[in-house]
Design brief:
By secondary structure, this protein is α+β, with helices and mostly antiparallel strands. The chain has 2 domains: 143 residues, Ubiquitin Conjugating Enzyme, CATH 3.10.110.10; 128 residues, Alpha-Beta Plaits (2-Layer Sandwich), CATH 3.30.70.100. Helices cover 41% and strands 20% of the residues. The strands form 2 sheets. It has a 5-stranded mixed sheet with strand order 8-5-7-6-9, sandwiched between helices. A 4-stranded antiparallel sheet has the order 1-2-3-4. Strand 6 and strand 7 form a beta hairpin. The N and C termini lie far apart (64 Å).
Length: 313
């Protein structure tokens, strides 16, 4: 217990730096909508941990800026802070905009990482403000630089060449269990940030379905796979090629058009019980799958088919 004390004290200092920086950012970006936290419960949890009221960290501090970096268009800068930021871990800082292609967003993310590695010399103190300020000051140049890389790769194509098609993908992911609130928040936040649709069922077993552009579903998988799991695997990967610019065709392929949600499928749940500890109601889950035209996945997940999905004899 005593051996853990220095580690805990160091972590508390890092978390306090995160909260102090967020307070400073809130004073600077104080116009309505400029700086938002999706769940203020994360601040309460960090504060309680620092003060010793709880010994469990259940969340990470994450927030988003929404700034007018483009003409008539606001751009989101998403920030997620690991518990050992700033001294030992780097923040995850991602740029999102409806008018910036996803491939370019990824190149922007890589450029931000490079800036932190090369230009942020003092990493014992919080530096999100420095990075966001750099993005604001250099946004036009950053867009031009990341776009040029895309164009340079396209140069050898003939003048009559058509734009590459898009691959739609749906991943069905199965895990032994999912209870950690931090993992659950990461799953929901990552799916929504990538504009994926689908659902997540925490508990035992855990089932996750995400659908969207293949580049985004694969990024989702790369993000959640390294989290600590007893067992996690992709049970089924469905793909279909869509013509470039075929937004309507892409929308028609989605089975969960309402967005990404956490679903529990618990029947007769007590008021004070934790939903993720309750057994899944197979009946509710089957109805949910049928409602969303996904009855075919029953065999992949559980090894059986309902009468409606079974081939005629």
């Amino acid at each position: 217990m005593d051996e853990q004390a220095p580690h805990n004290d160091h972590q508390k200092k890092e978390l306090q730096k995160q909260l102090d920086e967020f307070q400073m950012l809130s004073a600077i970006y104080c116009n309505p909508g400029e700086l938002r936290v999706d769940d203020y419960g994360c601040i309460d949890n960090l504060t309680s941990y620092i003060s010793g009221e709880t010994d469990r960290l259940t969340t990470k501090l994450d927030y988003r800026f929404e700034l007018p970096l483009l003409p008539d268009q606001k751009v989101q800068i998403l920030v997620e802070l690991p518990h050992r930021y700033p001294a030992l871990e780097m923040p995850r800082i991602v740029i999102r905009s409806a008018v910036i292609p996803r491939d370019q967003e990824r190149r922007l993310t890589d450029r931000i990482v490079r800036y932190i590695e090369e230009e942020v010399l003092e990493r014992n103190e919080a530096y999100v403000l420095q990075v966001v300020g750099w993005i604001q000051d250099n946004f036009a140049e950053l867009l031009a630089a990341t776009a040029e890389r895309k164009e340079s790769k396209a140069c050898p194509r003939s003048a009559g060449a058509t734009t590459s098609p898009i691959v739609f993908e749906r991943l069905w992911i199965y895990s032994h269990h999912l209870k950690s609130k931090m993992k659950r928040q990461t799953i929901i936040k990552t799916a929504r940030d990538l504009r994926l649709t689908g659902f997540s069922r925490p508990g035992k077993p855990a089932i996750i379905c995400v659908e969207g552009q293949q580049a985004d579903t694969q990024e989702f998988w790369r993000t959640i796979k390294p989290l600590k799991w007893q067992k996690i695997q992709i049970k089924l990967c469905e793909t279909e090629t869509v013509a470039a610019g075929g937004e309507n065709e892409m929308a028609a392929l989605r089975h969960f058009a309402a967005g990404f949600r956490e679903e529990l499928f618990c029947a007769d749940m007590d008021e004070d019980s934790d939903a993720e500890d309750q057994p899944m109601s197979m009946s509710l889950f089957m109805k949910f799958l049928d409602k969303h035209r996904c009855g075919y996945i029953k065999k992949e997940l559980f090894g059986f088919q309902s009468a409606i999905d079974a081939p005629a004899s």
